[in-house]
Amino acid sequence: MIFSFLIPAIVILGISGFFFGRLKAIRVATAQGGIRELHSLPNHYGMLTGLAILLPALLIYGLWISIETSIIDTWIINELPPELAKDSGSASLVLNDIKNTLAGNVTVSKDPEITRAAGRYAEIKQNYRTMVAAAVMVLMAVLAAISYRSISTTLRARNIVESVVKLILLLCSGVAILTTLGIVLSVLFEAIRFFKIIPLQDFLFGLSWSPQMAIRADQAGSSGAFGAVPVFAGTFMIAAIAMMVAIPIGLLSAIYLSEFANKKFRTIVKPLLEILAGIPTVVYGFFAALTVAPLIRDMGGVVGLSVASESAMAAGLVMGIMIIPFVSSLSDDVIHAVPQALRDGSYGLGATKFETVRFVIFPAALPGIVGGILLAVSRAVGETMIVVMAAGLAANLTANPFQAVTTVTVQIVTLLVGDQEFDSPKTLAAFALGLILFIFTLVLNFIALQVVRKYREQYE
């Protein structure tokens, strides 16, 4: 039970250490002639004492939580009778039964050995946690005493605290970088396994996508067809349609709200426009499937066009509506942040409102606008639910926006749903699609960066 109260105890002791350290620093300074005699502020001494208590305790706690399961599992497996743990597979199943028994998912176990092992598991877990909690409490007491006694007028508390905070910030940055690197490497390694089975040129330039393995050998594509061109074409088509809707409407609405609308209208309309970004994508999917797609089909029938029930046009239009707030809100903030001096200088030279917006404000805000459009493109490429409900799952290679198509993200979700064999090309194809999508996004970012850099040099 003591382990469950360990985190609150660590926090309370850390806060207490801050106040006690601060009070001692004030007392030491008073005895030496005043606060000016201290090397650092009293708060720095309090922070030093608090950090000395908090950081090692939290480090030990987090370390134990991360390794606790593996240590106890190994201990229990070693104690199991040989007939229950014949190999790693059977031992894993028995261990799963033990944990289910402990969790209450199995009220009465048929095997008394599993019941005994469950009790032993709980006992070992409790003993270890008690020892860890006791070690943490002793460590906090020792470090609190050491840091408290070390407080003096010559102690460089500020330097130490700033170094510790800088190290924490560096570690946080490292976690973000390592997480990104881990994601990239995990996708890359699995994609390499896929390309060892399916040649890269067949994947990039193949015109048929059918990753489902056929049941009979005489069926077409019995070994699967992994030409990704139809998937990429569907992705680009839907994203292009969405951008043709979102960029003009979003950008023009941002210019109007920032430069032409009065303050009252802007205060009302901008929050209403941003509500679109908070609507769940599944709601947009229902709207696309039940309203927009039938409307497009009926309108196509009136003019003699053959429109599928699920089409890229329906998905792209609704996705464009969903993305409007990303373009509009970011562009509005960027345009609104352009210095008023640029506007006044343009008006002073005799430019009209339209000329000022076109030749001064828009170029000055272009880097931020490009960033907003880039975010919108990434949002469009990564959307799944609307495509599933409005565009379908068929990987058709077509330039007709009124036909059913699919996208990269939809295929990734489809391939990884349910129990999968990660040695199968069908499952590994999802990682290959993810890798290509990552490379495409990286190239898009690079192009946008070059555009931003060019115009920044021109207008700064």
Topology of helices and strands:
Blueprint: H1 6-32, H2 42-79, H3 88-103, H4 112-149, H5 157-197, H6 200-205, E1 209-210, E2 225-226, H7 229-260, H8 263-278, H9 281-302, H10 312-336, H11 340-348, H12 353-381, H13 385-390, H14 408-415, H15 425-459
Antiparallel strand pairs: 1-2
Topology as a string of helices (H) and strands (E)? HHHHHHEEHHHHHHHHH
Mean pLDDT score:
82
CATH architecture of the largest domain: Orthogonal Bundle
Counted beta strands: 2
How many structural domains?
A: 2
At CATH level 3, the topology of the largest domain is: MetI-like fold
Q: Briefly, what CATH class of the largest domain?
A: Mainly Alpha
Straight-line distance between termini:
62 Å
Please state the oligomeric state of the protein chains shown: single chain
- What class, by secondary structure content? mainly alpha
* CATH homologous superfamily classification of the largest domain: MetI-like
Q: What would the principal axes of the Cα set say about the shape? A: flat
Gyration radius from CA atoms, angstroms: 31 Å
Unreliable stretches covering 5 or more consecutive residues: 214-221
**Main sheet attributes: strand count, strand direction, barrel closure:** 2 strands, antiparallel
Please bin the fraction of helical residues: over 70%
Strand order of the largest sheet: 1-2
The total of helices stands at 15
